[in-house]
Automatic annotation (TrEMBL):
This is Rhamnogalacturonase A/B/Epimerase-like pectate lyase domain-containing protein. Pfam families: Pect-lyase_RHGA_epim. Transmembrane segments: none annotated. Residues 244-305 form the Rhamnogalacturonase A/B/Epimerase-like pectate lyase domain. It comes from marine sediment metagenome.
């Protein structure tokens, strides 16, 4: 019999009995293992604090507990003991042990090891588990939390395994069966990450969808949230974050179905989201009710740019907004909301859209003259045109012929919107505008009067054109680009200001680029800029503007200042009557067009700077730079009181004010001229004798220069036969001809006697020959001195 002494002591009986610190020793010495067994656990206490005699506190019987066996197949009683007293030894080699350690169990928990009804081989590397080297934990033969397991899981034919049960969150699976069916609907929402670009959905053998997340930044998680709606992922059409497709809001885009409600719903949605892009795939969208943007950050963008208007038709694919509502509407308004507490509208834009007013097309009518009794003309029929102001001819010297009728129609039509041509007995009227309620016209000849009752004007198609395409009101820092405008009755593109805001109302700092207009059928302005007496359209950048118009104004510039135009071309069709542009005068300075700058501008027809004949304060201080004389742009019409400064492509300046000018024949002389300027208007340095030449274009040419040899200033006729004509000359020195003096300062003293060669006056009635000779001699001497006579 042997006794194991404890590892340490406790200070109370209860603590010693519990042995919470596990001081008790239950080890059987190696010499007795296999034959020895434990008998009892004895707990003693010292009778005195300093030691000495012991007294028995508790005797715990350990017989039958350690080690234990069950004979005859009977079950063993439950035995509880500290984990450090339990070990399993190999029967042949007691140095081989399995120790038990329960320290990893959460306090208060009981964990159970259940034996499967099968043999288990725990040999590392040959069993079904990872070796220590293969695992991620140094002491783990069986994989634990955070470890890995490799190899196949072999199942019986009727058994299944839920891979998610192999880990806490089911995220440690490294693959998924090809073409696997998802039938576990109760758990299908569980996390199941899939490697990047792994096939997700397949159809047949050659169609599949993959997800590629390679563009996402490292350590960033992006969430794809499914809305309560269908999503179309077609390239260029689908809805993406920040870009909202009008098709998803119900737009059709067939050019006839009214898409106003759907597109406005998309705009409202983007406004509520705090901004974004309303995307319109390339198509034509019918608009019966005007669209409105009145919140910041909203961009209307088409799928294809406007692309321009070909003279031969065949327009490229565009995104168009086509008016189908009542006459006089506005297709799109981008505007701040008027109100004392509101702000101007910012960070908005309209891009790649063609605005179509849906104006009726051009129409030709034929007037046939049939002679009646007394030379009258009856039965004239004009179909599908509108004659805006009527034609009244009162020339009694003309007979009724097709030529005269056509001439009178054209001559007496104010602001013509149609034209008459004759061929034989037929007059053809070409109308620019078609619509309801056509007016009659009266032609008076020497033999008869054709009154309206003699003319049958059949009604044409109703004119329901839109008045305005894009109306921009009190916006700042917005962009309007790649737009087209077709035939509006008021203005294709208008910029102005709202009535009231809590801040400046000006339409400022916007960029307007790549805009094209074609206003051949309607008389509205292509581009109109305006404002009121306090706020206006100012400090905007306009670039690459192309106007085509007929009777309307190309560029109508009202209350504005400090706008810059780069590359502006205004083309008026043949026989059109509209002004290329107007710079408006106003009742006060704030209502005028002033200090606007046009760089590289060309036009056909008049460009008018209004003056005091039109309003109290004239337009002023506008500038044209590089007026296109290569294509014969006329000089602008500058009315009384107006100021418009321009420079053309031939290098000519009009009304520019210049600072002193330094001119040289080369770099050296130019620098010398510059350095010499102090207060001169101009200084010219030239190394030759040709400083300046004056040419009148009729063969006359004069040169002004300094003779390099003598230093004389020379006025030289180079070509032609003209002479120097001087109305008044005042000099303090003599005049020379070919180096010889011909005249100098006046010779005085002719009223005083000078000896025999007297200069005194004499009475002509009593003069003697001698006295006369003296006077003549004195005069000859004076001419000789002055150089008028030579020796």
């Amino acid at each position: 019999m042997f006794v194991n002494l404890p590892g340490d002591f406790y200070n109370s009986d209860a603590a010693a009995i519990t042995d919470g610190s596990k001081f008790g020793t239950y080890t059987i010495p190696a010499a007795y293992r296999g034959s020895g067994f434990l008998i009892a656990k004895l707990v003693y206490r010292y009778l005195a604090a300093g030691g000495g005699q012991l007294t028995l506190v508790e005797n715990i019987d350990l017989t039958g507990f350690f080690p234990s066996h069950v004979a005859g197949g009977a079950g063993a009683a439950l035995t509880i003991f500290p984990d450090n007293v339990f070990a399993i030894q190999n029967v042949a080699d007691p140095t081989k042990e399995i120790d038990v350690d329960a320290s990893g169990i959460t306090a208060g928990n009981t964990r159970t090891i259940t034996m499967a009804d099968a043999d288990i081989d725990l040999t590392p590397g040959t069993g079904s588990f990872a070796t220590e080297a293969e695992g991620t934990l140094a002491a783990a033969a069986l994989s634990r939390g955070g470890g890995q397991m490799t190899g196949n899981i072999t199942m019986l034919s009727t058994q299944t395994v839920d891979g998610r049960d192999l880990s806490v969150d089911g995220s440690k699976l490294d693959g998924i069966e090809t073409n696997a069916d998802v039938t576990d609907t109760a758990n299908v929402a569980a996390a199941l990450p899939v490697p990047d670009s792994t096939s997700l959905v397949t159809f047949g053998t050659n169609k599949e969808m993959r997800i590629d997340v390679g563009a996402i930044s490292n350590s960033t998680v992006r969430v794809l949230t499914m809305p309560d709606d269908n999503i179309d992922l077609t390239l260029g059409i689908g809805s993406f974050p920040g870009k909202f497709n009008v098709i998803s809001f119900g737009a059709v885009g067939d050019g006839s179905t009214d898409d106003s409600t759907a597109i406005q719903a998309a705009i409202d949605f983007v406004e509520a989201a705090g901004g974004g892009t309303v995307f319109l795939p390339a198509s034509t969208y019918a608009i019966a009710t005007g669209l409105v943007v009145n919140s910041r950050g909203v961009i209307i963008e088409g799928g294809a740019p406007a692309g321009g208007f070909h003279d031969l038709g065949g327009e490229p694919a565009t995104t168009g907004l086509k008016w189908t509502g009542s006459a006089g509407g506005t297709i799109l308004q981008v505007t701040a909301v008027s109100g004392g507490g509101n702000q101007s509208l910012r960070a908005c834009g309209v891009k790649k859209i063609k605005f179509d007013a849906n104006a009726p097309t051009h129409s030709n009518g034929t007037v046939t003259l049939d002679s009646g009794g007394g030379g009258s003309v009856d039965g004239i029929t004009v179909n599908s045109i509108q004659i805006m102001s009527g034609a009244e001819a009162f020339d009694t010297s003309l007979t009724v012929t097709a030529t005269n009728v056509a001439t009178n129609i054209n001559a007496f039509t104010s602001s013509p919107n149609y034209y008459a041509n004759s061929s034989g007995a037929v007059v053809t009227i070409s109308a620019a505008i078609r619509g309801t309620g056509p007016n009659g016209f009266v032609v008076v000849s020497s033999t008869t009067t054709i009154v309206t009752t003699d003319v049958n004007l059949a009604s044409g198609v109703a004119d329901t054109s839109a008045a305005i395409g894009l109306d921009v009101v009190s916006t700042s820092y917005c962009e309007y680009s790649d737009l087209g405008f077709l035939d509006f009755t008021d203005a294709g593109f208008e910029m102005s200001v709202v009535a009231t805001l809590g801040e400046a109302r000006d339409c400022q700092h916007n960029q307007i680029r790549n805009i094209q207009w074609e206003h051949f059928r309607e008389a509205g302005a292509c581009l109109r800029l305006g404002g009121d007496s306090i706020a206006n359209t100012s400090f905007n950048w306009f670039e690459n503007l192309s106007f085509k118009h007929f009777n309307g104004i190309g560029l109508d510039v009202g209350p504005t200042d400090n706008n810059t135009f780069q590359l502006t071309r205004i083309f008026r069709a043949a026989r059109g009557a509209g002004e290329a542009g107007i710079l408006r005068a106003g009742s006060v300075n704030a209502l005028t067009a002033r200090h606007n700058y046009f760089f590289s501008i060309g036009y056909v027809g008049p460009f008018v700077a209004e003056g005091t004949p039109e309003a109290t304060v004239a337009s002023h201080d506008n500038i044209f730079w590089q007026l296109d004389k290569d294509n014969n742009a006329p000089n602008p019409t500058i009315n009384t009181g107006a100021s418009l400064y321009y420079h053309d492509t031939r290098g000519l300046f009009n009304k520019f004010a210049f600072t002193p000018i330094a001119i040289g024949s080369n770099a050296t002389t130019a620098l010398a001229a510059r350095d010499a300027i102090i207060s001169e208007t101009a200084r010219i340095y030239n190394g030759s004798s040709n400083h300046t030449r004056l040419v009148n274009g009729a063969g006359e040419e004069w040169g002004i220069n300094i003779d390099n040899g003598t230093g004389d200033l020379r006025l030289l006729r180079i070509a032609g036969s003209g002479k120097v004509a001087v109305s008044s000359i005042n000099t303090t020195d003599a005049y020379f001809v070919d180096g010889t003096q011909v005249i100098r300062n006046r010779d005085t003293g002719w009223t005083s006697p000078t000896g025999t060669q007297t200069r005194t006056g004499f009475a002509t009635s009593t003069v003697t020959l001698e006295v006369l000779a003296q006077h003549v001699h004195a005069l000859i001497d004076a001419f000789l001195v002055h150089g008028a006579l030579g020796a």
